[in-house]
């Protein structure tokens, strides 16, 4: 039986309430000021891989869209991350955060130190969007429903607990507080408009679950490699290398 529009939206929001990565212990540790400087750096390095992959994910999506109106609506997502003549973009803002925590932004941008599990998770998301139905691809993006809360908590926690945190270094999160609601308003409406059968609702819900798993698994990888017990896999960033960091400005 097809759920009503309101009931199905509530079902999607419940997925976030139960599975979004704001519940992960790494985020409690980060926002509570319990992360060491190197744990913060490891998070910045690995999260960058996700950030830099988002425009590629969106470009893959747009390459499959035949409806010009949908392409026009989706285009701003790429510009928000890659930047324009008037907007430096989220990727550049994330590299500013990298510099603030004492990392060489060129090293971070190279993605050389990213954990293998991070790459597997993020690449799986890009592949999912490239290969699944448009409905599933858009539904997977609906983790943005829950992002403003985590960005607000992150800004508050980082400002309270870490010396590197200021308006300049946290500009990525402040900008997402303005950008994400626009994206999610469109995406949610589009999904609700296109889930007129039980099988479509189930597919959209499963796509959102998949995306929460992608985000959660990245934090599991960070915890296992850099928190306890720390086991950095070959090729990933080594906190004790001393060669990859420079003095934070």
From TrEMBL:
Keywords, sorted A to Z: Oxidoreductase, PQQ biosynthesis
Pathway where this protein functions: Cofactor biosynthesis; pyrroloquinoline quinone biosynthesis
Reactions that this protein is recorded to catalyse: 6-(2-amino-2-carboxyethyl)-7,8-dioxo-1,2,3,4,7,8-hexahydroquinoline-2,4-dicarboxylate + 3 O2 = pyrroloquinoline quinone + 2 H2O2 + 2 H2O + H(+)
Coiled coil: none
Matches recorded under Gene3D superfamilies: Heme oxygenase-like (1.20.910.10)
InterPro entries, sorted: Haem_Oase-like_multi-hlx, PqqC, PqqC-like, Thiaminase-2/PQQC
One function term, GO molecular function aspect: pyrroloquinoline-quinone synthase activity
Segments forming domain Thiaminase-2/PQQC: 10-220
EC number: 1.3.3.11
GO biological process, one term: pyrroloquinoline quinone biosynthetic process
General function of this protein: Ring cyclization and eight-electron oxidation of 3a-(2-amino-2-carboxyethyl)-4,5-dioxo-4,5,6,7,8,9-hexahydroquinoline-7,9-dicarboxylic-acid to PQQ.
Similarity field: Belongs to the PqqC family.
Protein name, UniProt field: Pyrroloquinoline-quinone synthase
């Amino acid at each position: 039986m097809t759920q009503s529009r309101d009931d199905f939206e509530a079902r999607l929001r419940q997925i976030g309430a139960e599975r979004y990565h704001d519940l992960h212990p790494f985020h409690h540790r980060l926002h509570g000021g319990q992360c060491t400087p190197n744990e913060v750096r490891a998070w910045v390095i690995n999260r960058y891989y996700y950030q830099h992959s988002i425009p590629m994910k969106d470009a893959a999506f747009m390459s499959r869209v035949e409806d010009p109106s949908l392409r026009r609506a989706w285009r701003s997502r790429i510009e928000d991350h890659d930047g324009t003549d008037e907007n430096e973009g989220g990727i550049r803002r994330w590299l500013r955060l990298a510099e603030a925590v004492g990392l060489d932004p060129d090293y971070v941008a190279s993605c050389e130190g990213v954990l293998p599990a991070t790459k597997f998770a993020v690449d799986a998301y890009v592949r999912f969007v490239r290969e699944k139905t448009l409905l599933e691809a858009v539904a997977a993006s609906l983790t943005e429903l829950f992002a403003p809360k985590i960005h607000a908590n992150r800004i508050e926690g980082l400002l309270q607990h870490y010396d590197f945190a200021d308006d300049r270094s946290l500009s990525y999160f402040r900008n997402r507080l303005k950008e994400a609601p626009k994206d999610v308003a469109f995406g949610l409406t589009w999904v609700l408009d296109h889930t007129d059968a039980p099988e479509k609702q189930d597919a959209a819900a499963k796509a959102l679950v998949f995306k929460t798993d992608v985000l959660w698994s990245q934090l599991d990888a960070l915890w296992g490699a850099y928190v306890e017990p720390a086991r950095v896999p070959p090729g990933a960033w080594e906190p004790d290398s001393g060669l990859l960091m420079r003095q934070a400005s």
